[in-house]
Amino acid sequence: MTKTIMIVDDSSSLRQVVGIALKSAGYEVIEAADGKVALTKLDGKKINLIISDVNMPNMDGISLVRAVKQMPAYKFTPIVMLTTENQDSKKREGQEAGAKAWVVKPFKPDQLVAAVQKLVLP
Length: 122
Hints:
Elements: E1 4-8, H1 12-24, E2 28-32, H2 35-41, E3 49-52, H3 61-69, E4 79-83, H4 88-97, E5 101-104, H5 109-119
Parallel strand pairs: 1-2, 1-3, 3-4, 4-5
Helix pairs in contact: 1-5, 2-3
C-alpha cells in the first residue's frame, strides 16, 4: 500500500525537490503552501507523515503541528520540521508541540527520505 506524505512549505521549488525525492522513493505526495492550506487538506484521508517548514505566511509550522495534534484522525501522524531554523529554543518549541524530527535546510534529499522511512511505520 502506498504511503502518503504531505509537504507544507511556502516555497514551491522546495516542495518540488522534496516531492521528487519522495515520489522516487515510492511515496504519494500532497502539497500545501502553508499551514492553513494544509489543514483544509487534512480531511480524513490517511496521511502517513507531514513534512513542514517553520516560517510560513498565514500559519507557521509550529502552529500547524499544534493544530494537527488536536485532530483525532491525525493526532499520531509523525511530523518532520524542515527549516532554516537551527536554534535550540525553536527545536524545543517544535518538539513540545509534537514534532518528531527536525531537519535543517539546506538538506540532502536522500537524508530526508531516510528520516521519513524511519518514521513511517510499515
